[in-house]
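Quick sanity check, Regulatory protein RecX:
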Amino acid sequence: MPLKIQKLTPSQALQKIKIFCAYQERSHQEVKDKLYGFGLYRMEVENILAELISENYLNEERFAKMFAGGKYRMKQWGRIKIINELKLKRVSPYNINIAVHEIDENDYLQTLEKLALKKWQSLKADQYILREVKTTKYLMQKGFEVNLIKTALQKIRSKE
């Protein structure tokens, strides 16, 4: 079944999209996609985007910071996963860089070590090498950097 496009006038679309943006932070691409879904043309979409930005409904830097902070705190994602997700949302490299640098380095390392230890302890029955491989894979899937993972695992091994 084809996707049903709702045809709105630019002023109707502006009112709807303001509510959409006020509800939570949005990337420019999410808003563009939504506006095109309302059946608007390119110039209408560009004009509405400009108005949303000037009225501060839309701010890509603010979106990137909120996204990165939220995914790090709530889902305990690492920097690599956060960066990749922001790229998928077509956030500019400049704003991605700002967002990722908002994460406190000490807090980031503590989170990594806590996740590594928890995973390591959950694999008690496995062989030593297998534990290391599984823990590394898990942390890489979470988006943490390999060099930081190796350091965290060395700390765990030294305590055993």
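Posting the structure with no commentary besides this: The longest helix spans residues 105-122.
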